Each structure stands twice: as C-alpha cells, then as structure tokens.
Amino acid sequence: MRLKQKKFEVWSVVSMVLLAVFLVFFAYPIITLLRQAFVSPDGCFTLEYFARFFSKKYYYGTILNSFKVSICVTIVSLAIGIIFSYFYSFYKLKGAKFLFVASLLCCMSAPFIGAYAWVLLMGRSGVITKIIKDLFGVRTVSIYGFWGILLVQATKFYPLVMIYMNGMFRNIDNSLMEASSNLGCQGVKRFFKVVLRLSMPTILAAALLVFMRAFADFGTPLMIGEGFRTFTVEIYNQFLSETGSDYSFASAISVIAVMLTAAIYLIQKLATKKFSFTMNALHPIEKKEAKGISGFFMHLFCYLVVAVSALPQLYIIYVSFRNSKNGVFQPGYSLSNYAEAIDKLLFRATGNTVIVGVVALAIIIIMAIMISYLTVRRPNTLNHTIDTMSMIPYILPGSVIGIALVSAFGKKPLVLTGTLAIMIIAVVIRRLPYTTRSATATLIQIPMSIEEAAISLGSSKIKTFFKITVPMMSSGIISGAILSWVSIVTEVSSAVILYNNRSITLTVGTYSAISRGNFGAAAAFATVTTVLTAISLIIYLKANKSENIEI
User: Fold this and answer.
1) What string of H, E and C letters represents the secondary structure of 308-351?
2) Contact between 497 and 239 (Cβ < 8 Å)
3) Which position has the higher pLDDT, 108 or 379?
4) Which of 42, 184, 399, 410 has its CA 20 to 30 A from that of 487?
5) Taking Cα atoms as reference points, which of 281, 272, 311, 307 lies closest to residue 89?
6) How far is CA 189 from the centre of its chain?
7) Range with top average pLDDT, 159-173, 210-224, 465-479
8) CA–CA separation, 327 vs 516, rounded Å?
9) How large is the average pLDDT for residues 214-219?
10) Nearest-angstrom CA–CA distance, 422 and 426
11) Rounded to the nearest 10 degrees, how much is the dihedral formed by the CA atoms of 215, 216, 219, 221?
12) Each residue's pLDDT tens digit, 138-193
C-alpha cells in the first residue's frame, strides 16, 4: 500500500516566511527591549528601573501628562471632526471639495512641523505675538506647554475623524432620518439622539486612532512642551541624554507605555463590540441647502477650522523664501534658505526619504497582500498569529520601535544601526497595519465564488491569485499604500533615534535644523516635505474615488 504524498502547498511556505520575518525583525527586538528593562547589568532579574520610575513624580508624571493631553486632544478632535463631517455630509456647502482636500492636506504632514510653525507665529518672538503686543500692549496666550500641544495636535488630527465620519454618514439610510422627523425628533435633538448613536462604532474607532497618534507623538511635546513633559520625550531624553544615556531605564519606560497603550486598545475593542451592528444605506442621505443664519454659521465654522489648520503650513512655505541670518529672519526674499539647506544635506535627505519610502512601500504592499489573503482565505492559527503580530505596531509609539531596533541590531551578529536598512525596517513595521487593514477590508467584500469559477475553468491557484484576486483588491491596496506612504514620508519619532548623516531624511533634517536654531533651513526642509505630501495627496485622490478610508 502506497502512502499518499502530501501535496506541496506554496501558501504554507509563505506563512512560514512571514512568521520568520516577524520573529526576527519585530519579536526579537521587542524581547531584547524587555530583557533590557528587566535585567540588570550583571545579568540578574530586577525591577529597579520600574521602581525608580514610579518612585518619583518627575518620571511617572510624564505618563499622566501624556494621558491628559491625549484625552483632551481626542475629545477636541472628535468634537471638531464630527461637527465638520456632519455639515459636510448633510448640507450643500459652498467649496465643499476645497474644504475636504484642504483638511486632508492639513493632517498629511508631521505634527512637529506644525508645532514649529506655531512657534514662529505665536512664540515669544512670533509674528502674531508681536502684532498683538504692538497694537494692544498685551501678550497672547503662550503656545508652549499643554495648550500649545492641544492646539497643534487637534488641528492635525481632526481630519482623521472627519474622514471616518464621512464614510459612516454615507451609510445612514435616509428613511431613518425621515422616521425620526415624523416622530418629532429634529435638529440638534436628532443629531444627539439618532445620528451620534448610529455612529458610535465609528466614533470609537476614530477616537482610538486619534488617541494613539496623540499619545505616541514625539516631536510636538519636545518642541513646545517645555515644562509639560510627556513620556515620549522622557524616553528620548533617557536614551540620548547628553549627560549619559540610560538604555535600561528608557526600555522600562517603553514597556510601561506599551502596556498602557495595549490596555487602551483592548478597552476600545470591548466597547466597540457593545455597539456592533451593520447598516446599509438603501436610500442615501440627501444633502440640504445651507441657507439662512444656520448656513452662515456652518460655513464660518468649516472655513475657520480649515484656515487655522492650514495657517502653519502656509506660513512655513512663506518664511522658507525669507532672508535669514544666524537663525533670524531678515527683510527681503531669496533662495538662501534652500541654498543653506542644500549645504545641510537637503538633497541627501530628499533622496533618502524617497528611497526609504519606495523600498518600504514595496515591501509593505507585498506583505499586506499576503497577510490579508492568508487571513481571509486561509484562516488558521498560524495565519491569525501573523495577522495579530502585524497589527501590534499599530499601538506602539515610534520611539519604542526605534529603541527596540537599536537594542537588537546595534551589536553583532547583525549590525544595522545608522543604515538605511534599519530605517526601512522601522517604517515597514510601523506602517504595515495601514495597508494590511485596507487590503483585508477589500478582500472580505470579494466573493470566494469568483476565484472558484476561475479555478474551475482551468486556472491554477497561483495564477488566479495574481490575475484575479490581486487586481480586485487593488482599490484597497492603493488606498492603504498611499496612507502608508504619507506616514513614511512624515515619520520622525523612530527616525530621530535611528538616523545618522548617511541616513538622514527630510523630517529628521527639519528637526535637526530646528534644534540648532537654524529656522531658515528648517523651513526649507519642511516645505519640501509639504510638497511631497501634497503630491501624495493628489495621487491618493486620483486612486481612491471614495472618502471612506479603512485604517
């Protein structure tokens, strides 16, 4: 009796390769980080670093500050984004397309660049500060500290809420709105009693995204936080302190941050399940005319929000053409800032940004396609484990990823610190979830019968995958890839830990110039970054006809 040979399964090999990649480039660095946090220099288990953190308010206060500002940013962003989206989705606003594009452009840049612009506008010697002082003899509210971080982050993150809510509002059936009107529930009452309750799953998802972005933000609190210190800044200070680095203590703070963000993520997931339901709009919402005094205030609100959000970016572009000397802007205009930025490795930074972005994006697209296919079409324990591992970086701050990679690959046998390779690994790990989530959401909607029909007509499984499945997933892949690309271009929190002069990127170049007080060159670096993100936005709008983004 012959034993039947087991047929070679290519997808099993793909699963094993993906698992090996995650074990080497994600699990191993995280384990190294944990070991560094729990093991003393002499190799013994210790809780000394955690005891030091919780014994002094100077340290544990940074976590409290991070929670305080992140919660407030989330609340403000939700308030602005939901109201903005409600006006945009339910009423015919003049210049609606401009408002949508301008809002997207506002969020598609590194938050710390906005913080830098607000310092130029409302810092101690800022333009707005001087104008108000000259006219009224009073000082404006300081841009530094808690309120400054709140302003910068809220104006950066509200568009993410708006994008989520736009998709949600399009799924509300108009018959529900008409039924509530017939029952006497209209206007503001209907907004709170009907619209918000129907939108709760989406609101929770948007809240998680904004909270995680705000909690993990490194550049904004570093630049304008001053006395208001957050844990991301403390990790950076402990890891790269001029008075002596303490890698173990930085690792301990990172572990605490990971545990807290994981807890927030789980709470959000549990809350979402309680509000879980499906809804399809057989009769989509019909937009009303925004007329009268209410229409005026709708337009005023939307345009004012966009104006405040866009002001920093527009001012950065403006000052990049101003003359400057020794970090101080002078009368007149020229390209001297760009000439100085070129001396400070602008071309290298631009080239590195493009190289890191293109290579990382290619890897992200390939891995996202494979992971989404394995998760949806071939579900098993191994593939679900791979999917879970790919999503964990979604809740990890960039500085934590940076420290973990330096700890793991800063010594033999594999030394990658200071190379473009480690920069690529960092952004692939951090930004893979965007494309994976988007590709998975698209594949779920594709009937399995289409692939079965192709196979029944003689097509092989591999040919069906490349010729049928992947092209049908293209919309989700492209949408997620553009979001990953923009996030890669504006990455700073892990980059400042991993870079050197050979691997400098545009955002790191901006940060370095600001830290040296060279504001003219910083403006040039930031402007080039803005141009790249604007081009990315144009590509995104061409590739994705819908405003609904799966993240």
Assistant:
1) HHHHHHHHHHHHCCEEEECCEEEEEECCHHHHHHHHCCHHHHHH
2) yes
3) 379
4) 410
5) 281
6) 34
7) 210-224
8) 9
9) 84
10) 6
11) 30
12) 776 778 889 999 999 999 889 888 887 877 777 676 676 667 776 667 667 777 77
